[in-house]
Write a structure and sequence with these properties.
mainly alpha; Growth Hormone, Chain: A; 20 helices; 77% helix
Length: 480
């Protein structure tokens, strides 16, 4: 059977492990700093509260510039070496921008948030390059889960220090994370662990922008609820200081661990609907329950568990999209900027809700309306993603099967008319996840000939795309 052998995959995985772990470590430390300080961080809140300063304008300034950094980075950082320089420069600027917060409040605080917010956004976008070159396709969901899990564990440690011991101690801890992250970043090669940078070329695809923009729309809408959470839910439980300092992100981490280790055959789309139900349940519980410890555990578990489900969904999708672009920094940055934009809009909505003292019941109605909109978008998004990421879902299952199992799939589903020998060869390569160009090279034929064979195959199986073909074959294999 054609395709990459299991032995080849194991060898490739062993070679890339060290670089992959260094990349994950570098980003986890950077992201821990962002979560604990720059982006709605408890360290920043603790410092502002310590000096009895109004927090909203500082928080908003940091988030807006972080959004701009994510969105713009890929437009001027376009090379592998540029990605490494941007990560190091961004982290270095964040260290410098944080120094004024060790002293009494001044105009430098706002300046530091503006500079640090933009620099951290650029550094995050630049890491998209390292996610692409150090993590093989179909494995990026695991790397995405790892960086989110590790960064949140570190964030919990920083938060506990800042809230229960010393805000300045938490600030020093977050800066230490940045400095250690810079050390890991310096150890990364911008071309990966190969002496042939040309080997990591992308499968450029002009069709990437439609599914990417639809994904961004989905992310913006669903994360409006996260912004509401920050502005409406969290302040209601701020009297539970000790519990909030460590438990807040625990359900998020648990959800990530569970999602990371789901079997490849699991229907992840169903988990997304479960996540929407959890968001709805969180706001309804917030409306009906009191504000004691038990109520906080219920509300936070539902809300942060759902956040973990959705964050890993779009992080992993963005990770797979990186194979279809020559500039992963742009795609990764734009995708994550949608998350920040949603939180920003939700935060503004939350401020309005708080200022007019809107009842909890009406806040729950707003959240439910947002969930309904995302439910309507999800089927369209799923179709767009399947057209682009042909080997993201079904083919991950197919590629893990033995040769005999793969042949059984082809033999079980009868086409409307028999395939020629060449069409069968092309079909096998399609199911191995290869592009038309790669198939043409392997079979020593032109790309246009491959396209002709592919159209004939689609016609004989009565489908119109690779995604439909794969779905039909595996559906018949499962007897559904």
């Amino acid at each position: 059977m054609m395709g990459v052998s299991a032995t080849g995959r194991v060898i490739t995985g062993a070679k890339s492990l060290s670089g992959r772990m260094i990349s994950i470590s570098a980003f986890s430390l950077l992201f821990a700093y962002i979560l604990s300080f720059q982006f709605e961080g408890q360290v920043l809140y603790s410092l502002l509260n310590l000096h009895q300063m109004e927090a909203s304008r500082y928080i908003l300034a940091g988030m807006v510039t972080h959004f701009v950094g994510l969105l713009s980075c890929g437009f001027f950082v376009k090379s592998p070496s540029g990605a490494k320089h941007m990560m190091l420069t961004g982290m270095g600027l964040c260290v410098a921008a944080t120094i004024p917060f060790f002293f009494v409040p001044s105009a430098l605080w706002m300046g530091g948030l503006l500079v640090g917010g933009y620099a951290s956004g650029c550094a995050v976008a630049a890491w998209g390059h390292f996610l692409k070159i150090y993590t093989p396709k179909n494995e990026r969901i695991k790397s995405s889960a790892d960086v989110l899990i590790y960064s949140n564990i570190i964030m919990i440690a920083v938060n506990v220090m800042a809230i229960n011991w010393s805000p300045l101690g938490g600030l020093a801890f977050s800066v230490l994370c940045l400095l250690v992250g810079m050390v890991f970043t310096m150890a990364l090669s911008p071309h990966g662990e190969t002496s042939k940078p040309a080997e990591i070329k992308s499968k450029a695809n002009s069709d990437i922008w439609r599914p990417l923009l639809l994904l961004c729309l989905f992310v913006v809408i669903i994360t409006v609820n996260s912004g509401l959470m920050y502005q409406v839910m969290n302040p209601a439980f701020q009297h539970l200081t000790g519990l909030v300092s460590w438990y807040w992100a625990v359900p998020y981490i648990v959800a990530l661990v569970l999602m990371r280790n789901l079997p490849k055959t699991a229907k992840r789309s169903m988990v997304l609907y479960a996540g929407m139900a959890m968001i709805t349940g969180a706001f309804i519980s917030f409306m009906l329950l009191e504000r004691n410890t038990y109520d906080y555990l219920v509300v936070d578990t539902l809300m942060l568990g759902a956040c973990g489900i959705f964050d890993l969904f779009w992080w992993s999708i963005l990770g797979e999209m990186l194979d279809y672009t020559g500039n992963p920094m742009k795609v990764f940055g734009i995708g994550l900027s949608a998350n920040v934009l949603g939180v920003l809009l939700g935060g503004v909505l939350g401020m309005i809700v708080t200022s007019v003292r809107l009842p909890s019941a009406e806040v729950a109605v707003i959240a439910l309306a947002i969930v309904c909109i995302t439910i309507a978008i999800l089927p369209l998004l799923n179709r767009q993603l399947l057209r682009l990421l042909k080997n993201h879902a079904y083919l991950a299952v197919y590629d893990s099967m033995s040769d005999n199992q793969q042949l059984a799939i082809l033999n079980k589903t009868e086409p409307l008319s028999p395939l020629t020998v060449r069409e069968l060869e092309v079909l096998q390569w399609i199911l191995a996840g290869r592009s038309n160009r790669e198939i043409a090279t392997a079979l020593f034929i032109s790309e246009s000939t491959v396209k002709t064979h592919a159209r004939n195959i689609f016609s004989k199986y009565d489908v119109t795309s690779r995604a439909e073909l794969i779905s039909a074959l595996l559906r018949d294999q499962n007897g559904t």
